[in-house]
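Continuing from the previous page of notes. For each protein in this section, the sequence appears first, followed by its structure tokens. Read the first protein now.
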Amino acid sequence: MDQLLLALRAVAEQTRLRLLALCAEGEWTVSELVQILGQSQPRVSRHLKQLVDAGLLERLPEGSWVFHRLARDGAAAHLAHDIVARLPGADTALVQDRERLQGVRRARAAAAQGYFRANAAHWDEIRSLQVDDLQVESRLLDMLPPDGLHDLLDVGTGTGRILELYGARGVDGVGVDLSHEMLSVARSNLARVGLSNVYVRHGDMYRLPWPAPAFDAVTFHQVLHFADDPAAAIAEARRVLRPGGRMVIVDFAPHEVEVLRRDHAHRRLGFADGEVADWLAEAGLTPVDTARLPGKSLTVAMWSATCPS
């Protein structure tokens, strides 16, 4: 009862109701919320703290930034979602907030496009060497069907494409990445398609920010070739995988395209089946299936495994 009263007191104020509505639309920094609300940073921060303390919002530190979003777990989270659903959509303040929010989204999209323009040669060069993305995604959906999946973790999420792929099919998902630039791109992409059941957060694949198993599935999509220790990354991902859960790794088969190591920071030029199978077994996973999708110069390899029940 005390927690419920705390939550009810927290929302009994117009600015905090507006913040609740905005955070139901995505993840926002304090500066973005200040821009939308037109209020001072200290005032907005105080309101956010009350909502976080009441369990209505979640606070996600990311380097020097802090993002806020609607809480996903707990009794107060259910209350938050119920209150947002009851807010009058035609309210003048809420309409103006939504209009300013679109401006923030446009700014995010412009920043993401700028990043892609600066790195277009990188993406285009690698894509020209391998198989079409749609073929890879189709095979991934076969190896890891979305039916029956509830929680997906995408390690090294990059542009957030795997979250978009599964989120559009009703799977709740979270992507972690160590690059703030890529997280900005992923947030922009997910906002563009309007998915609220998936999100991203800053995280290290060797020290994932979950203390216990929390996911039905884990994916590594074109990330392990950057890793210093792929076996350790797989073992850490297995730690947060629920019993009976599944893991799928998408990367390159062994190749000799040295330009990827020289110019694009690839530490490994692909992986052999036996090598990946050993890492999966060492992590306590049972290899299930493999696939090969040949491209112009690179073959995309896929490996799946299950966690013992």
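Done with the first. The second protein uses the same format. Note its length before scrolling.
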Amino acid sequence: MGPHPYGSGGRGMELAKAALDLPGQTSPTPGRGLSAISRWQIVMAVELFDLLIIFAAGMGSFQLGATHPSLYSVDDALPVLLVAVASFLSFFAGHLYDIDHLLDEARNCKSTILRWTLIFAVLAAAASLARQPFLLSRLWFGGFFVIGGALLVAERCACAVLLRKWVRGGNIFKSIVVAGVNELTEKLVARFEGGQAGIRVAGVFDAALGGPAGPPRGIMRGLPILGGVEELLAFTRLNNPDLVVLTMPVDEAGNLKDVIRRLRQLPLNIRIVPGEIALAQTPSIRLSRRELPGVQLITVANRPISRSGLLVKEVIDRCAATVALTMLAPVFLVIAIAIALSSPGPVFLRQSRVGYNGREFRNFKFRTMHHEFTGSYTPTVKGDARVFRLGRWLRKSNIDELPQLINVLLGDMSLVGPRPHMVGQKLQDEMFFEEVDDYLARHRVKPGITGWAQVNGSRGPANALEQIQRQVEHDIYYIENWSIWLDLVILIKTLFFGFFGEKAF
């Protein structure tokens, strides 16, 4: 069996924690500059300003043509809130809150105006179809459209100017990690020395080293080589860089494939520099639409969910879990009593599962097996004698999964995502990740109570290689096509079609 897929921690974590304080790692100005999380905070600030601008423009437009100020009512606020929420979702779906997009005011203003106009066109069409053309005041409607649109455009222009100033001052940057120690890496690092074009090299790793590398092995243009693949995994898990760039020669296909396979378990943007010809262009003086200005990159994997998307998903998960647990409390009590009367032992089963970023967590379920068998890792089969009678019904109906709402509330799981597997789960004495190439990529998002695989028929225990492969294919499709709307579709299909089935036992 090969190295553990999640990295060895230890020395790698020590290097990861210290790396940003090493010589040569400072930003172009005396200050440390804005970290990746601060980039995310900038995006969140723009999103908040958008909502405030839209709400202020909408409510203020009610005063147009009024002879004296009047009090607002709930009926006044509802259409404004509708426009604000619709605008946020539309801008978010169009990636208008990405830093690269915010830096390009011409492109962002054009997209903003188009989406803003479309929202008002839909609003006007809805009022017309409802045969209530005067439901919305024309003066309010026109004022809201013009004032709100103008303020949004002005905000975008001011934001772009401010962000470019921060880029030139070295206060905002993209952090990249480079895997590969060779001449190409040296030229790439030299290209962005001094924070050129807002790019900062946060670490260099020797991807040819499979095991723990020990102390840093040499210096490359002032940057220490922080170790091998194990340290690379630990560093990226802890520091969450904006980009991981592989400069390994393409003729090292076997090693390159293994490094990519192990990196794909993490929610990273992974790219390959195909050779020196990729550095032929001169970089721009500012961040451009291209991820690394002046560098041609081959995309290997993208971070599946943006930080803004993660926040939206997290808020929905926590709120829904809170409401569901409150409503289901009487059901939980009845089931707990029934389990206690059916089989001696605890009501809940807590097993170690692999979750987001390869981290382990304790998974809650209603116990369905006799207590003496709960530690077994052997997959369940139909008519399994270890499962007591009530347990069979709980498993077949998937009601035994409901306590995982607690995991959602704790932040270990999501309502929708790949189903979490047990730690060390094997198929014919081989680990799942050794049998299926893309298996580790499932851990780029939080595991879910239900998922795309489950609503497409991949339910029940994974007893065959073909079944695992099919489940992984569905999981990867979900990860690479994630959206709030896809989550909603999966939840609806689960509610109406996903509770009972022949494959659940």
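What the second structure shows: The chain has three domains: 11-33+173-301, 36-168, 307-497. The mean pLDDT is 79. We return to this in next week's lecture.
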